[in-house]
Every structure is written in C-alpha cells, then in structure tokens.
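Progress report, Aim 2. The chain analyzed during this reporting quarter is listed below.
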Amino acid sequence: MRFVSVIISILCLAHPSELCTSARGKLPTNDNEVHEVFPTLYQFDMKSKLLNASKDEMCPRSKKMKSCQLVNVQFQALKSMKLKVPLRRDDPNAFLVLKKVSEEGLNMALINPNQPLTATISYKVGTELASFVLKQSKLYGSIRISPSGHKLFIEPCPDPYLCHIVVEKVKRV
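Predicted structure tokens for the chain:
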C-alpha cells in the first residue's frame, strides 16, 4: 500500500493538474490530513477611509457590545455549501465553518443587486442555526458562537455609508 502511495506522489509531482485535484476542493497535505477549500464570508477592512470615521457613527451603542469591526462582505460566498466566518482581525486561525441548510432567492438577489429582491440563507454551526437576509446588497445576519449567548451580528453600516460591520455581543447576566 505504501508503494502505491509513493507512485501516486511521484505522478502528482510530474502531472499535478491532471492527477492531484479533487472535484470537492480537498487538498491532501499529508497522509493524515485533508483540508477543504471554501470561501470566506467577509474580510476585515483595514484600508478603508471609513476606519477613521467615528465609531459612534458606525457602531450601535450597547453595553452588550464587545467589539465592532468594519468588513468587506463577499456576497458570492453565500452561494457556497460551506463558508468560513473570521472571528478576529488579529488571528487568521480563529474562524467558524458554516454549513448551508437552505436558501431562497439568492441567485436572483445576487444577479439583480439594485432590485428590491430578498434572499434568505440558513447555515448550521454545530447545533446552532445562523441566518442571513440579503436585500439590495445589504446583508443582515446573526451567528451564535457560544452556548453562553455570545453572538456575531453582520449588518450594513448606517446610511450614507456603503459598507458592513460585524458586531460581537456578549450576554450580560
């Protein structure tokens, strides 16, 4: 069996595009590990001029708010059966993986972003449900990230800004 693995490895080095790709996007890194490749819902915005805007203008006021971050939403990622949701700007390894449960109207809302069309998309994170609504290039969503009530909310920035924020809230007892 080990001999066959060595032969395949040699062939992969010679012809990687023909033999070593997978239709599911899984890339073997060693004998014991397989990583799936799937899109990221948003990226933290570190270059925008809006970063200098007053946090009072961009973020809701709440005693439950732990953090508020400006993000660039990748709307096309919503089409994927799985997607990655980053949790912290300073730690690229801190993320959740969401698995799609259902969607309604997503293709039409993405094709016609300026029309008053609404899409609803549901994902699972462990046993929790994450829900999103997309309407006219504005994404609204919530994800419970801990059993204690810790949540992430994705929402558009207040008008007139054309951006999105991710608000992290904790449940106060």
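The two ends are 57 Å apart (CA to CA). The first helix runs from residue 2 to 14. These observations will guide the mutagenesis work planned for the next reporting period.
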